[in-house]
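Batch manifest line 292
LIGAND: benzoyl coenzyme A
JOB: complex structure
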Amino acid sequence: MTLIISQMENLNMEEWFDAKLQKNEMIEPKDWMPDNYRKHLIRQISQHAHSEIIGMLPEGNWITRAPSLRAKIVLMAKVQDEGGHGLYLYTAAETLGTSREEVLDALHTGKAKYSSIFNYPTLTWADIGMVGWLVDGAAIMNQVMLQRTSYGPYSRAMVRICKEESFHQRQGYESVCHLAFGTPEQKAMAQDALNRWWWPTLMMFGPTDDKSPNSAQAIKWKIKRESNDQLRQRFVNQTVSQAEYLGLTIPDPDLKWNEERQAYDFGTPNWDEFAAVVAGNGPCNKERLQLV
Ligand code: BYC
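JOB STATUS: finished
ARTIFACT:
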């Protein structure tokens, strides 16, 4: 009897929850929410937080090697911002009833993921420019959409993060500008970095929509407002003219303006590589294994 009553209560609460989503109202921490909505958010927000923290490592490594005092100060500020983003997001995850220890434990035991992009090495100073221009550029494309996510604390964290992220993208572009308009050696360094970062950046958006197990439910719950493929396409459309201005070549022979779609056609990322990187067999892991 008690079970039936609680099932009926859940049914009513589910209608209330769906109606709130329909009206585009935010779900707040003390609101009733389906268990799977809560789990889905804990997974995504904590993985997002881990990406911010892990993302500090390759850039932090370059602070001592930045080529000028100005570049050093800017990079330090950026790395510090990423730490702040991680902390907002861990706090947002905690409002869902998980603890900092639980989410960190999931990271350390390999249960939780972090963005594939941070398993690629930053070999030269130009790579740090690419991280700002391309990686932050891709991240912001996703995060602008997440400002309208249905969970209040995640949405509000995104509003703050996006303000800082646009500075990150611009500092990266400025840094790449210096190299692209510098000596032939500097330009070659920028081109080499673009060649290595282009495809991993496109993979940051996640698998294609037909291979994305979480997307359909995320869109239904308005956690995601746009799909992985839509965001990837928008990123390509935006970035091509930036590369043209720099006089750099995007390493994709299939990249071509499609008049009918009013969008660029582009090649297929190496999804086998993506699967390997996410499974912990990325270039950085290989380097580490070779060193052991
Ligand atoms: N890397 O069903 P899907 C930054 C996983 S940091 C690794 O499409 P979803 C920055 C995915 O988790 C900001 N794994 O998933 C910091 C799922 O596995 P699980 C980074 C990936 O969640 C410092 C499976 O593949 N931004 O900007 O609907 C310096 C199937 O995927 C990846 C965020 O974290 C990947 N790239 O969509 C500089 C944004 N892609 O969890 C810069 C927040 C997918 O089922 N996250 N997987 O085991 C999201 O928006 C979404 O989670 C994703 C994936 C679009 C990434």
